[in-house]
Amino acid sequence: MKLTDKQLENFRESGFVMIPNVFSREEVALMQGELPRLFAENRAENYREKQSREVRSAFALHLRSDIYRRLVKHPRLIGPALQLSNEEIYIMQTKVNVKAAFSGEVWQWHQDFSTHKEEDGVPRPDALNIHVFIDEVNEFNGPLTFIPGSHRRGPLNSALDTETTSYPLWTLDQDTITKLIADGGIVSAKGPPGSLLIFGDTLVHGSSINMSPWRRTIFSLITNPISNAQTTNKRPEWIHHQDTSPITCLDDNCLIDPSNDEGPSHTIETDSIQSVETAGNSP
Ligand SMILES: O=C(O)CCC(=O)C(=O)O
After folding, report:
1. What mean pLDDT is predicted for residues 35-40?
2. What is the span of the domain harbouring residue 53?
3. Does the C-beta of 240 come closer than 6 Å to ligand 1?
């Protein structure tokens, strides 16, 4: 799949592009169907909310599930990512972010690049965060909120907040956010299950709590150009992958019909997992 000229223009101007109904109900059901088993695993990659202990982020899904291993090679994700990156890309991070009904917590205002630079020594803000909505995302269940055009300011000063959220995050201060919103406004990314959302590494974003009765589950793949790979290895492999092999696409029907998929290229062992408390935050 390729982005149209208008979608490319939106991405350049606003810092994100949103396309509803890219994946069918059947494909989304396959993604959703994997989650109860993955969330039931007692391993560090399942990061839980501080208060409710519900899974907030489940990492390294492409190494834990055949459906997600195929999803990260899907041409409807990788086609647009290659078009925007203009060079070969690798998988930097995969996860599902959940906001459980009534208890999903906040993600403060941030740019993904702050974490990529500070934690991983990624040189340039060229990574892409590619989301697939597994549940409907509406105005009540904690959609991502963006400040359109904020990516054009480039990397902004941020500070590591270790207290407010379930895990440490490099966040932006309220003065900066107030000024950015005065200029760019604020929008939320809503859509039906199967929607595709792509945003760049310097787009300022966050999300508020979910006080609705509707769960909000979003799959996220972060890709990075191979020429922009990390220069330090502070974080565990499963939160920032060190394998910079180029992503190759499978067939468009690969989620439904896996016959052209050669099978797992690697697995992750529980005993190789470091604790996220020592090294981790996300994006
Ligand atoms: O899932 C969310 O609400 C926020 C996710 C996010 O900020 C990110 O992926 O960088």
Report:
1. 95
2. 17-253
3. no
Residue 24 lies in a domain: yes
The CATH number that applies at residue 216 is: 2.60.120.620
One-letter identity of residue 195 = S
Residue 221's beta-bridge partner residues? 94, 130
The closest residue, in CA terms, to atom 1 on ligand 1 is 97
Closest ligand 1 atom to Cα of 144: 3
Number of domains in the chain: 1
| Per-residue pLDDT tens digits for 56-91 | 999 999 999 999 999 999 999 999 999 999 999 999
Q: Which atom of ligand 1 is least distant from the CA of 283? A: 10
How confident is the model over 6-24, as pLDDT tens digits? 999 999 999 999 999 999 9
pLDDT higher than 80, residue 269? no
Residue at 122 is within a domain = yes
Q: Establish if 112 belongs to a structural domain.
A: yes
In a domain? residue 9: no
**The token pair that represents 107 in the structure block:** 């993600």
Report whether residue 60 contacts ligand 1, using a CB cutoff of 6 Å.
Answer: no
Q: Which residue has the least CA distance to atom 9 on ligand 1? A: 283
